[in-house]
Structures are given as C-alpha cells and as structure tokens.
Amino acid sequence: MKTIREKMKEGFVFFDGGCGTLLQAAGLKAGELPEIWNITHADEIRKIHYDYLMAGSNILKTNTFGANALKFSDDGEYSLKNVVERAIDNAREAVAEVEAGTSEGTDSSTAQEHYIALDIGPLGKLLKPLGDLDFEDAVDLFRKTIAIGAAYGVDLILIETMNDIYEAKAAVLAAKETCELPVFLTTAYDASGKLLTGADAKAVVAVAEGLGVDALGINCSLGPEQMMGIVEELAEYASVPMIVNPNAGIPRTENGKTVYDVTPDKFRDAMIKIAGLGGRILGGCCGTTPQHISSMIAAVKEMTPLPLTWKEHTLIASYTHAVEFSGKPILIGERINPTGKSKFKQALRDHNMDYILQEGLTQQEKKADVLDVNVGLPEIDEAAMMTEVVMELQGVTDLPLQIDTTDSKAMEQALRRYNGKAMVNSVNGKEEVMREVFPLVKKYGGLVVALTIDEDGIPETAEGRLAIVDKIYKKAAEYGIAKKDIIIDPLAMSVSADKESAKVTLDSLKGIKERYQGRTSLGVSNISFGLPNRDFINASFFTMAMQNGLDAAIMNPNSGEMMKAYHTFCALQGYDENFTDYIEYASNLPVVTVGNATGGAGMGNVTADSKADSDAAKDPLIEAIVKGLKERAAHLTGEYLQTMESIEIIDGKLIPALDIVGKGFEEKRVFLPQLLMSAEAAKSAFDVIKETMQSKGAAEEKKGRIILATVKGDIHDIGKNIVKVLLENYGYDVIDLGKDVPPELVVKTAKEEQIRLVGLSALMTTTVPAMEETIKMLHAEGVDCKVLVGGAVLTQEYADMIHADKYAKDAMESVRYAEEIFAPRLD
Amino acid sequence: MIDEKEVYRYLGYNSGWIAGLNAETKNDHDDPMDSSSEVIQGHIREAVASTEAAMHPKACYGRFPIEVKGDGRIRLPYGEVVSHDLTRNLCGCKEIFLFAATIGAEYDRLLRRIRLTSMAKAAILQAVGAAAVESLCNKLNDDLRKDAEAGGYKAHPRYSPGYGDYALENQKGIFGVLQPARYIGLSLMDTLIMAPEKSVTAVIGLERL
Fold first, then answer.
1. Is A163 in contact with B190 (Cβ distance < 8 A)?
2. pLDDT tens digits for A570-609?
3. Which residue of A196, A318, A631 to mutate against B (max B Cβ within 10 Å)?
4. Does A247 lie at the interface with B, CB-CB under 8 angstroms?
5. How many CA atoms lie within 13 A of B131 on its CB side?
6. DSSP assignment of A83-130, as one string?
7. Cβ neighbour number for residue A433 with a 10 Å cutoff
8. Which of A237, A455, A712, A800 could hold A770 in an S-S bridge, CB 3.0 to 4.6 Å?
9. Per-residue confidence (pLDDT) for residue A597, from 0 to 100
C-alpha cells in the first residue's frame, strides 16, 4: 500500500465526514464525552466508520477529538490510553471488515487504500498571555495523546478545528517531537475569513508551512460555499496539499435541535468547485453524513486535481497577519535594542517591561512593519529575558517580530514561544553559525537574515559577497530551508572609512536580485558611521538601496529623514495607492514653530503670586492638573522650575491640585476618568521635577514605601494599577508585585524591604481566600505592617472577616489611609 | 451598539449626572472640572470606536430541559445544583436557554496596549468593554426571548453564575455543555475567570404560558 504522503501526491484523497451529529442521533447526550463511546458504544462508532468507508473515504478520523489529559485520567477504565487505543481499534476493525468484503467482491476498482488518522482537537483552553494555559503545558498535553496513538499505530496525525494558531503550533510541535508520522492541520475560520484569535489564511500558511506540516486546510464552522474565499487564499499561498472538510452548512437550531441545511447534492456541487480551486484532500465535518461523502466522491474522483505547485512568497506572520516581502519595502524597527542606549539598558536591568513595550508601540505608531527584538546585556539572562519580552510584546502588538540574538539558547526559546512565524537575526557564512541556526529555522519556521560575512571576514567586493550568498543558499538547502526563507543582508559599511563601501553594498544588492532573485535586507545606518548629521547620509543611502531592489531595512522609524525617504520613495515607485500613505505622512508632520507652542497665554505672572495661591483653582498649573492636561502640566512645571524650588511646586501646586480632584471624587462631583486624568497630568509634572532634581544630583524624597499586589489566582489588576498611580502621585514609593502574586512573595518582600503598608486587591470571590491566606501568612511571619484591601467583590464585612486592617472602597480612600499610616509622628 | 450612558454608569457616574449628559444648560465655565468633561467624552467616544473596531461579538447557546425540585435543588443539563436564588428565578420553568457570549480576544489586547499609555484611558476602555458585552447579551437575550414567545413561552430574566448563591463553580458545568471554546473561542481558566475577559454566560428560564 502507498503511504499517505505518496497517495496525496498522486491525486485526490477523501476524508470521512461528520461524527458528532451522528452520535447525537444515536443518543449521545449534551455534555457527555463522545470519546467514552469508543468503549461503551464501540458498535456505534464502528458502524459510522464502516459507513464512511463504504461511501468511499480513504481516511478515517478516530473518535478522539477531545481525548486529552485535561478530560481523561491516567488510569481506570476511561483512561486516556484506553480511550485512544479503543478508538483506533474501532477504526481498524471497520477497515478490516470493509477490506475483507471488497477482496471477496468482484469489482476490484472499488478496492481502496485506507488510512487511519489520529484525530486531535483543541484543548478548550486559551493560551497565555490571554488565557491561563502555558504554551509548554499545551505541548505536553498534545504530546500525551499523540504518543499513545503513534505507539499503538496510526497512519497520520490530524490536528483539526484549531481556532488559535498558537495552539495549532503547540500541537504540530508535539506531533513532530513525538513521531515521524505525517502531520495534517486544518483550522476553523469564521465568516470573516479569520480564526477566532484573529489569524487570516495567509498567516496560517506562513506558520504551518514554517513548522513543516504535510498538508494544510480548513474544516468546521462554515459550509462549503462560505469557504470559497479562504480556499482561494490557501491555494494562492500554500505549497502543500490542501485539505477541505466543510460542515453541511452553518448550524442553526430548530425546535431545540441543531440542523444543517446543505443537502448531499448541494454539498457535492460545492465540493466540485473546491476541487477545481485546488482542494485535494476532501471530506466533511459537522452535519455531513456518508451520503454527503459518497455523493462528493462519485463526482470529484472523475476530475483531474490541480497540480501541486511551489509558491515563492516570502512570508512572516504574527498571530493575526502575514507580512510579505515583495514590492513595497518592509520597515523593521530597530529600537528594542540596548546598544548605545543607557535608558534601555537600565530598563533591562530593572526589568522595566513597560518601558520596553512602549518602545515597541511607538515604532508601531510610526509605521514599522516588523519589530526587531534585541535584549542582550552581559549581566542578564538573555534567554529568559528574550522569551519574556517576546511574550509580553505579543500581548500588546500584532506586529511580527524579528528575534535578534547571537545566543542560540535565547533564539530557540524565543522561536519556540513566538506566536507566528518570526524573522531571525541572524545567520552568516560561517560554518559553525549555520550549523547552529539552520536547524532552529527548520524546526520552528522563520525567515532568517543572512549576513555576507564568513570565516575570512567581509569581502571587499560585491563578487566576494555574492560567493558567500551562494554558499549560504546551498547550505540552507541541505537543511531543507528554501531560498524564499532566507533574506540576505549584504552589509552596509562605514563610507567614511572606505569611499567605495556604499557602491559595493549596492552592487551586491543588485547582484542578489539578478543572479538569485533573492530577498534582501540592510541595517542602513552603519553607512554613516563617523559622519555628522548621520540621518542625511542614511536617508539618501536608503533611497539608493530601495532603488536597487532592497526588500527590507532595519532602521529607526523615529528618524524623520529616514521616514521621509521611505514615504517619498514608495509614492514615486508606485507602491502607494492614491498616495494615501504619503498624504497621511506629509500632512501630519509636526509643525515647526518659533518659541513655545504649548505655553498658552498668561504665563508671565505665574510665579509665586499670592493671588494665585489664594485662588488655587485659578493657578494655571493647578488648573491644568485638575483638567487632566498632561502636556500643559509638564510644560508649565518646566516654566515654574525657572523661579521656584521643586518642593514649593509639589506642595504648593501639585498636591493641592490633586486634593481638589480627590475631594471632588469623594463628594461624587468628580468621577474616575477625571481622577485618573488628573493623576496622569500630575505625574507628567512630577516627571519634569524628577528630571531636574536628578540633573542637579538631588535625591527624590519619598514619603514611604508601600507594597501593592493583586492576589494569587487573580489576573485582573486594573484596580490595583489605579491605586498605584494615585499613591505615586502623592509621593509614595510603590513596590508593585503585579498580579497573581503568591503570598510567599508578599511576605518575603515585606520583610526584606521593611514595609509598613501592604495593599492587596482581589476581583473575584474565588480569589478572596488567597487574600485571606496572604494576610494570615503576614501575621504568622510576624511582619509588622498594616494591610489594606480593596477590589470589586470586597466589603467591609469581608475585610473584617479576613482580618485586614483597612478596607478602602476606592483609590482615594487608599491614599487617605496611606497618609494616616505615614503621617509624621508627633511623639 | 455600545450605549454611552452605560459606559458612564460603569465608570461610577451617578444617575443625576448621566441624566444631564445631553442637556445643553451646562454653562458653568468657572468650574474647571466641568470643562474637562468634554475631554472625557472625547476619550469615551474614542474608546467606543476602538472597541467597536476590535470586538468580534460571538455567542453560542442551547435549549435544555430542567427540573426545579424544591429545597433550592435544580436539575440542570450538567447535573444537580443547589441555589435558592436561581430556584426563585426559574420558578415555573421546565426548560432553559443556556448561553455564552464574548466580544473576543482582540479587545483584551487593546486593553493591554492602552494600559501602557494611560490608566485613565484604560479605565474608560474597561467600562466600554463591559458595556459592549452587556449590549451583546441584551441583543441575544431579545432574540431568544422572541424565539421563546413565538413558541408560547415566557422568558425569565437572565441569570449568571456568581449572582446570589448560584455559585461561580457552575461555570464548569456550563462550559462542559456548551463547549464555547470550540464554537466562540471562549475558555474558562482554572480560577473560573473567563478568557477573553469581556464575556458572559447565563441561564434564561422558559415558562410555558
């Protein structure tokens, strides 16, 4: 018998159809686990398999969609092992029965090649960071089921109905790490053509082919007619055979029963169209029956399948969308990188994730397409930091990332955890580096930046650099990495050191295009090293490089000159439909003004004016803070600092302003948004003062140190963060332990830092016990501190019950309590 | 459609203030706090727009027989539970709709992003998200109610785990029956909190008229 890999190369292969609806008809109850029927109703399961085989199906899906270790235990009658093995037995027995029947029969043309697919469905849990299932735990759960199935004997692994590309990645990795069997992946798109977690078909192709699936497609959710658009998109981008297993239409309820509207005839007609669009491995999902399948097979098997073709698209992807390297140059933002940036270095040392994420968001605003991520610093654990930054960035931005590191451990961890298909920065012509990087790119997928440097250094001629390009392509091919997944960086070197260097780089670019039709990228700014006003040189060089076919640049999106070069080039080159991007860019440039643009009127008489003091709200700074005007508050503070001491501003302006708003809030005249806007305006004023003090070498004076934490099990921390903003404004030093904080960490920190006030927040009734436990532990360990509690479900009664010292109903009350605790003692 | 008044309500504005929201007689220009309400309104509109762009409302439901057994005991599709409050709600019902609804995961990412820039905007977005899922539930509730009425049933007000003594634990049973992870991408975490964040599950009692 041919293997399934061989069979699908030759022509159409047919899956079976739906199972769930048939089981319900046979008496499966809502909420009952269908996999248990492998044991309790084996005859029913075998009958379904048998009917599909008689309908002409080649591949049977085992009844193991929900068979995972979350639902089934390690031992007992309904153990995971027993459930999976019996499912395979049922399929095998049906195959044996049918094959025995046909071998006796006279018509040998109906003899089929039959395959058993171990069916793997989603785990029913959302992965971190949005859900609570860790990626590696997901891999382990899939691995358990797959290991049982592979050991017992199946022909392929079918990972199906995946509605999250991240979970699909975990499942494919688990399959690849467990066995050598072919891996098929089908995902479930909704009517908008996306997975529930946002990925479109192009992104799915990028990720799935990067991971090396054998066949890829779509199942469930939609009827065949609604799938046409997605089928076309898959056909355009995917090189592997396409699987299409539609529902018999979109389910709806009628008299309390789920019904599907697509009849076997209509199903057949739609599947003929799908086969014509490139569908090759065809079957059905929910609501389809043996009649649907046999009707489809009878018609489709007479057709000639479209040939399988290799697609040259160079794609990377985030969890929502793919970025294609073709035509319009791709901007790779370089700012997440500590090199030469003391603030960024400090943020890495302090584990200041917000600062790092902010660097990412700013570049996204400035139109970066991809973010380079480099967190290498000798004194930190780069692998751990890289993984964390990648995960956190993916929690806030949907841009694809470029993993930039020379540490192979960091590279592997980040590539493994990355949700999508990443860029990898970088490999080069050195044997040792290729040996290290290529296996990772092969395993996890990726578009790898390849530098034209090898053991002998950087060649001085374009011809020399092209020789390295040749070597890299060849070596990559040995690892099974296609040319389209390599992007060559022919290296820009300082033109001030060698006047030919720009020309050599440009000639190399041209050579890579002409000789190899290869993709190219450049770290543009090296060219100007050693020259004044580097942006001028960079921008012109950037334009020249784009003119020579550059596909991507690693650059600073905050650079005005570079962005100007980019937008004008795209407009002139015809990449900017209707000049939309150019017009948006050019008409929103900051207006250059003489003098100050934000100062506002009436600033001449603000200094220590007693009138202003007596009429607080009329003071411009106080007014700005009360109104929550961030920029204005910062600007005014800068002006005040010319004539006033920091402390005068804090005590005379900022605190009174906060008090006005705070009082208004307590009296219910002012509401939460304004309280927070004022707090943010005050913070921007504080930041100006802080900077001035730091530049003068003066230390900031803090009123007291407070721990804040959202308790273990609770991940909703918006309330805690609101309290934090206000406390910091009032001059407290807040140690923010974050969310889901174990009691031990609170106790340890409180002890080490000699904390006098701990604030705990909990949103759910289910996590209040964790709050109680934390308080108990603080008391048991004899930590001399007060405990303040708050959160949506808390009440004074609850607070008393769990022995908190104080219940604060809102953020202002927390501030008042802190003032009470840290009030200067009179004795 | 996200109801702006709902948003204000979630943000803690009192009903008197909300009632005056559209009145044109607010001219107390001397009060700086008052003029800032325009800025806040701008933020709210922006949050509504970005939420509407990010949200992918989805729901799944089923209709099931139940039995109210007295003493607070009710047989639900996932087993027997004890809840006096739910018993009161389901008085006279022999069937229920069980539903799960969510505005999707992209909103969660939007909230994570905005928190990095401004807590004020995050608080507003939080309220907008709550109003969004509320309006989704109202719409679904309306459709189900009409469906029930057409068949000669009266629909009772919807009731969610966590209300009264209908324990949050019931989420496990509801998730087992509806499998919202498969159909609408909604999952239950070990803490019984749902992900994506802005999601609702509920019971709607059906009383034969």
1. no
2. 999 999 999 999 999 999 887 654 333 333 333 333 333 3
3. A196
4. no
5. 25
6. HHHHHHHHHHHHHHHHHHHHHHSS-GGG----EEEEEE---S-PBTTT
7. 20
8. A712
9. 36
Task: Using the predicted structure, report yes or no on whether residue A112 has a pLDDT greater than 50.
Answer: yes
**Taking 90 as the threshold, does the pLDDT of residue A698 lie above it?**
no
Interchain contact B118–A (C-beta under 8 A): yes
Cα-Cα end-to-end distance for chain B: 32
Which range marks the domain in which residue A735 is found? 705-821
Angle in degrees, CA B70, A31, A139, rounded to 5: 135
Q: Distance from A626 to chain B by nearest Cα, in Å?
A: 7
Nearest Cα of chain A lies from the Cα of B177 at a distance, in angstroms, of: 4
The verdict on a CB contact (< 8 Å) between B185 and A679 is: no
C-alpha A559/C-alpha A368 separation (Å) is 12
Å from A67 to nearest chain B CA? Answer: 14
Chain B residue whose CA is closest to A396: B113
Domains plus CATH for chain B? 4-208 (3.40.109.40)
Q: Amino acid identity of A170? A: A
Q: Does residue A712 sit in the same domain as residue A689?
A: no
Of A493, A491, A475, the closest CA to residue A483 belongs to A475
Does residue A611 register a pLDDT over 80? no
Do the Cβ atoms of A609 and A586 come closer than 8 Å? no
Within 13 Å and on the Cβ side, how many CA atoms surround A487? 30
Phi, psi of A156 (to 5 degrees): -160, 165
| Contact: B179, A674; criterion CB under 8 Å | no
> Quick check: is A804 in a domain?
yes
**Phi then psi dihedrals of residue A521, to 5 deg:** -145, 155
Best probe of the B interface among A392, A671, A813, by most B CBs < 10 A, is A671
Query: Could you please report the per-residue DSSP string of B19-36?
Result: HTTT-S----TT-HHHHH
Q: Count CB-CB contacts under 10 A for residue A610.
A: 7
**pLDDT beneath 70, residues of chain B:** 22-36
Report whether A181 contacts A150 (CB < 8 A): yes
Total-model pTM: 0.89
B146 burial via Cβ count (<10 Å: 0-12, 13-18, 19+): exposed
Asked if A28 and A151 sit in the same domain, the reply is: yes
